[in-house]
């Protein structure tokens, strides 16, 4: 599929009316990194670190993690890599972690909740990331942040780790950016101060959509019932974009929907300027973005919303057929 889009591989994604959209890729294993070159992605917008933890039978040592992250950064050749700390617990049980029995794992003791309450693993990860960067810029993202204080506590862990590394005489990254995933509706309504504090935000649409519609992402029976282009969800996305604009907080979207061309152009119409997706989606998404007039699409979506439709998909499809 990538061959079909080879001619636009190195072309920046710019819409007909001149809006520049940054396209990044999602990854989770070192083996994914060669796609950075092949897909033309501008960086790794989401590196899911738990995949490397799941792929082994015992707890990795810090040295293992340093080596892994170093290889990832080396393979990215200076392009940005957004390392997401462990998004684990409940359903994604590590063989070497004591399982917890929870009635609703997706809403249970997972991700940053584990990281803050049992900080050993998170601290080891942070230290490994700092050492792997070895002077290079470093981007860290915390998953499943539901309230501002969770981000503050996590950032304090980063600061403490940096201080410790400094005392130990290690070379520190030239720049560290610390951000959060917006995957629970609550975070979208955090005080504006929170938006000023984060270095960036990334919408985890898979989880955000599941909690927005109360529809289990793992449950076939309900998950396709709610269209991503439902006006309620698009309004919500637009609201997040606006809040980020007030504080000039960089915002991206890294859930699976970013890799679906029709959804992707609609997110861009809502004001998103960075999308992160599986590498194979970059070509198709870019190709469609280059054909659309974003301001026109935005007006069409807006008109449909005023008419009171449930989803804007039909009008968007009409527009796309017309171009
Ligand atoms: C998401 O929730 O959209 C996301 C990118 O994270 P994950 O799919 O790993 O939960
Ligand atoms: Mg998620």
Describe, in short, the structure shown:
The protein has 323 residues and is α/β, with parallel strands linked by helices. The chain is built from 15 helices and nine strands.
Topology:
Elements: E1 13-14, E2 20-27, H1 35-39, E3 43-48, H2 50-54, H3 62-75, E4 80-84, H4 112-117, H5 120-133, E5 138-142, H6 148-167, E6 176-182, H7 185-188, H8 192-197, E7 201-203, H9 205-212, H10 220-223, H11 231-246, E8 251-253, H12 261-269, E9 274-277, H13 279-289, H14 294-307, H15 313-322
Parallel strand pairs: 2-3, 2-9, 3-4, 4-5, 5-6, 6-7, 7-8
Antiparallel strand pairs: 1-2
Helix pairs in contact: 3-5, 5-6, 12-13, 12-14
Verbal overview:
Belongs to the PEP-utilizing enzyme family. This is phosphoenolpyruvate--protein phosphotransferase. The protein has helices at residues 35-39, 50-54, 62-75, 112-117, 120-133, 148-167, 185-188, 192-197, 205-212, 220-223, 231-246, 261-269, 279-289, 294-307, 313-322; strands spanning 13-14, 20-27, 43-48, 80-84, 138-142, 176-182, 201-203, 251-253, 274-277. It is of the alpha/beta class and 323 residues long. Helix 5 (120-133) packs across helix 6, helix 12 packs across helix 13 and helix 12 (261-269) crosses helix 14 (294-307). The chain is globular. The two termini are 23 Å apart. 39% of the residues are buried. Phosphoenolpyruvate is lined by residues 46, 48, 87, 183, 204-207, 254-255.
